[in-house]
Amino acid sequence: MKPVDSNLEATISYAALLEKIEILRSTLRWAQTLDRAQIQKLLNQCTTMRDEVLRLSHTERFVKASTSAPRNQSIAQRRHALLERDFQFDGVFGDSPRLIEALEIAEKAARTDLPVLVDGESGTGKELMAKVIHANGNRADQPYITVNCGAIPENLLESELFGHKRGAFTGANTDRAGKFEAANGGTIFLDEIGELPLIGQVKLLRVLQSNEIQRVGSDQVISVDARIVAATNKNLLEMCKAGTFREDLYYRLSIIQVTLPALRDRRDEISVLIEYLSNEAASRLNRQPVKLSRRLTSFLSSYDYPGNIRELRNIIFRISCLATETADLEHLPENVRAKVPEQTAQPEVEPATSLVDAKRKASDEAERSYLLECLAKANYRVTDLARNIGMNRSHVQTLLKKHGISARQSLKAHADGGSPASLT
Ligand SMILES: Nc1ncnc2c1ncn2[C@@H]1O[C@H](COP(=O)(O)OP(=O)(O)OP(=O)(O)O)[C@@H](O)[C@H]1O
Ligand SMILES: [Mg+2]
């Protein structure tokens, strides 16, 4: 990907896409009849084209977002230099000095076969970074195999990692290759390495030392060439001190260490991340990017994000799904809403720009309150509401939509003892 100077690449890719569309059109034009298999084939081609369009639009969004805000020049230059060098960002967005530094380390590490340890709090993008390292190395078109070290039962660990021979244990009905063999020539991503039991750590250390494995129950030694990237949200050095992680393994795995910063330590990036993620959500949900009320923006820039970018991403996707046009505090998940300071939660009063505007605002507010009150009296049933206030149902629906009121959500909020909620 070379977004900033990507005109040429984009033209080529769009041209290739157009050519594919033309081939598809001509196939359809000359086909007398199509059987199911042929239809399926054409559908597959359409799916490929759709994915390509999504990829192109993603690249364009990235360029737009990454060039929109004037930021620290030297950081912008460093990121631009990464783009110039064809660095694959693979969805990593942001330009805090610490993130750019992490990407620069990843870029250098990617060109080698050295093990990399990615650490950082949950949701800071460790898995994404592991993919970036793979995508930027010369193994990019080779397998990328993920192992969640915390999710494998201890008795299956060895067989999962190294495979087994038929009959090695009850249930081993066939010979089976493990994850290391599957990753041969490519990368093995050992996620949550801090969860690997000590016995697994010993076995892993042996592979790191010899580049060889043995399937469970087999004497045969198999050479494997898998580049190791490990990730953890634990402090492995502390674990070494506590005796729960082997120090020799730690030093082997962490020849290159990439530490990802917590979102609360890169607050000045939150606004560009919100813009980037809102665009992403908009294209996924097939809608216009959601707007944020001032008090929601203010809250989101000061919130601590214990779940880091994953949490911010989830919030943006949620509000993009729930809000009609402008999202507000009520669209936040309940556990996050509980953290909104009382001061921020005060109703937002947009200053009127003229007398006419002031009258319109007052009338809108009165209309909204009236609707909410009548909706509650109608037990949150739109049909009853329409009858009670003498309007036809579709007009009432339009009015509710205009004010962002959802009968269903309001009923739920009422049952939960909260305030009325907006349309879903
Ligand atoms: N810099 C970033 N730019 C854009 N999206 C990001 C970035 N970092 C993380 N994300 C998004 O945040 C989510 C969490 O990322 P990821 O799974 O890589 O985190 P993690 O550190 O592995 O979390 P965990 O420790 O919980 O496994 C993903 O949806 C990912 O796409
Ligand atoms: Mg992860």
UniProtKB/TrEMBL annotation:
InterPro entries: AAA+_ATPase, AAA_lid_NorR, Homeodomain-like_sf, P-loop_NTPase, Sigma_54_int, Sigma_54_int_dom_ATP-bd_1, Sigma_54_int_dom_ATP-bd_2, Sigma_54_int_dom_CS. Keywords: ATP-binding, DNA-binding, Nucleotide-binding, Transcription, Transcription regulation. The keyword Transmembrane helix does not apply. The keyword DNA-binding applies. Pfam families: AAA_lid_14 (PF25601), Sigma54_activat (PF00158). Residues 92-321 form the Sigma-54 factor interaction domain. It comes from the Bacteria. This is Sigma-54 interaction domain-containing protein. It comes from Steroidobacter flavus.
